[in-house]
Amino acid sequence: MFMQTILGSNGIIGSLLAKELASNWTTDLKLVSRNPQKVNKGDVLFSADLLDLDQTTKALENTKIAYLTAGLAYSSEIWLEEWPLIMKNVIRACEIHGVKLVYFDNTYAYDQNISIQTEESPLRPSGKKGLAKKQAFELLNNALIQSKIEAVICRAPEFYGPGKTKGITNTLIFEALKKNKKASVLLNDKSLRTLIFTPDAARSVALIGNTPDTFGEVWHLPCDDNRLSYQTFIQEISKQLKRPTPYRILTSFILKISALFNSNIRETSELLPRYKNDNIFESKKFKNRFPQFQTTSYPNGIKQIIEDFNLS
């Protein structure tokens, strides 16, 4: 029996992907993590540390397609040390077993400027976490060029969504509101944002992974093209809650001072330039290839989060 295996199954993308695969693609699923938890009744659990080649290789036995959705502690030094090693181990394990790899990537390695982000955008990171992701991508791309494995890269912008979704928008807005605190916005509430709804990310990764002709390429995952600024995003929240939603703008000065005492803010600093200006992540390639795919609109996504967080 050849299974589909999720490497790093405990995170939001891994768990949503497990649900999507079991619902629409296959029930032969293996979930791999240091301490894996079942998502579906029939899931096979396998405990492994992806930093260890032998454990990674054993995890991919009897696997047809592997999804690398692992998340690391939000630390520049950890990313620089561990992402290249994880990618080397996963590539080698896939090569040994003839496994096709679906790599879930982010946009940290792109320029932190106003350029529209497409699959052809150059990787020019401005920080250590971006450099780590660039190194991981280059290892995988070289393996593709050398025909060591079959692989596809799925790239997503910042998350927002229900459940255990992590991301700046969820943390500064929805989680703050859940705690009856004022929402916060980084630097500029007028610039346009591109966010991906996490259930959409999981559905599109499963679709790409089970579509053979997508392999060997980079794909931007689908987002609502009717982008909102944080001002209009919060106005939509207010509209749905039927009450004002006050918020504050965290200025450069505030963030600089806060970074002295808050490691999460300090670790986010390399991304701050993209919050000053419009951040446009384009997913036309996916939408042209899969015109039937329905992307969640921002108002509908906000509605689902409000219901999930019980904010009303």
Quick overview of this protein structure:
This protein has 312 residues and is α/β, with parallel strands linked by helices. Helices cover 42% and strands 17% of the residues. The protein contains twelve helices and 13 strands.
Structural overview:
The protein has 312 residues and is of the alpha/beta class. The protein has 2 domains: 3-157 and 197-220, NAD(P)-binding Rossmann-like Domain (Rossmann fold); 159-194 and 226-280 and 297-309, Alpha-Beta Complex (UDP-galactose 4-epimerase, domain 1). Helix content is 42%, strand content 17%. The chain has 12 helices and 13 strands. The protein has helices at 12-24, 53-59, 76-97, 128-145, 168-178, 198-209, 230-241, 252-259, 263-268, 273-276, 284-289, 298-309; strands spanning 3-7, 29-33, 44-47, 63-68, 100-105, 151-155, 158-160, 183-186, 192-193, 195-197, 218-220, 228-229, 247-250. The strands form 4 sheets. Strands 3-2-1-4-5-6-11 form a 7-stranded parallel β-sheet, with helices on both faces. A two-stranded parallel ribbon has the order 7-10. The protein starts with a strand and ends with a helix.
By CATH, the superfamily of the largest domain comes out as NAD(P)-binding Rossmann-like Domain
How does CATH name the architecture of the largest domain? Answer: 3-Layer(aba) Sandwich
Number of strands: 13
* Percent range of helical residues: 40-55%
Number of domains: 2
Give the radius of gyration: 19 Å
The first-level CATH class of the largest domain is given as Alpha Beta
Examine the coordinates and then state which fold CATH places here, giving the name of the CATH topology of the largest domain: Rossmann fold
Strand content: 15-25%
